[in-house]
Amino acid sequence: MVKKISNIDVAKINRSIIYKYIYFSEEKVTVNKLVKKLKLSRPTVENNIRSLLEGGYIKSGEQIESTGGRKPKTLEVVSDFKYVIGCLISYRCINIGLINLAGEILEKKDIKRTFENDKEYFDDIDKAIKSLIKKSNIEKKDILGVSVVIPGPIDNSLDEVIYSPPLENEYIDIKYLKSVIELPVCVVNDVNAIGIARHFFNADNDSNKVYLNIARGIGGFIWTAGDKYIGDNGIAGEFGHMKIVPNGKMCHCSQKGCLEAYISTSCISDELDITLEEFMEKLNEGDKRITKLWLDYLDYLAIGVTNIYCVFNCKVVIGGEITEHLKRYKKVLDTKVIDYLPFDKEKVIYQIGSYNKEDIILGACVHYINKHIDTI
């Protein structure tokens, strides 16, 4: 039997539709615009606006010119109505930020510390979060949750990270982390967080795009038809583990010949017992051995980019720690990509993005911002 929708249900649906329009609109919003765009009656819009104003969800903004009658006021979402805490865990650092509904980072805390998969490490994260909340003078009830970003495929239903080569651990148990933080906690993959941030906060409007994130590990994010694609069990985009060299170099996943074994930053730093910055310095100085390794690196990267393009037939965005060093060698990479590409040789199939830890934190927080929006 189909459940009947009550007047209360209809009112809630309309209220949610109106709030979402105000939240996501890139233009100034007025009551007249809501009536016209949403095709709702004026009394319906005005009643819901009154309810949202009284609840503190939205506020009146500036007065704008009118085509006749009184000058209307714009309507804006109250950014500091609720907050989310984002926590990025990387191999040598913990980055924590307090974010409002507009995606503004209000407070930040960076802790230099090497990752350890133990109780003391996660306890320190909890202490840092509590310190950040205290410093911000925000009440705990106004924090929607904590989004923890970890490099590696995530399965929140199992409360574990399957493996995380960038953290040099295979199985990371996050049950303790979820239990020690006295707020709702979700765990997000770092590359997913970057892609979600770009699209949710209107930085990237392409309907189809694939992200290839290059750091100590290799990850991917697939954006298609206006939404993310996660696959059957949430780990789509593991481009680092597609095989490009039969029986090739050993990868962190214990398989041979993976893309990650050839284009991660660790393969041009850790394996040589130098930092990525030291590698690039030697390259810029003209070191012959380093130059040969770098040209080989660009070869494998070109193979990875063209393979991904051939599968998804949309632009590939290269991101991660390597990007700041890669831009000056783009012409070399362009040539290699064209050589490997079987079609669309005149088309620009990739771009070099950027690497910003704040973007990762913002993307992670979208989970709780979306939940908040859906409850209004």
What is the gist of this entry?
With 376 residues, the protein is α/β, with parallel strands linked by helices.
Characterise the protein shown here.
The protein is α/β, with parallel strands linked by helices and 376 residues long. The protein folds into 3 domains: 71 residues, Orthogonal Bundle (Arc Repressor Mutant, subunit A), CATH 1.10.10.10; 132 residues, Nucleotidyltransferase, domain 5 (2-Layer Sandwich), CATH 3.30.420; 153 residues, ATPase, nucleotide binding domain (Nucleotidyltransferase, domain 5), CATH 3.30.420.40. The chain contains 12 helices and 15 strands. A 5-stranded mixed beta sheet has the order 5-4-3-6-10, with helices on both faces. β12 and β13 form a beta hairpin. α1 crosses α3 and α2 crosses α3. The longest helix is centred in the C-terminal third of the chain and has 25 residues. The radius of gyration is 24 Å and the shape is globular. The model has no long low-confidence stretch (mean pLDDT 87).
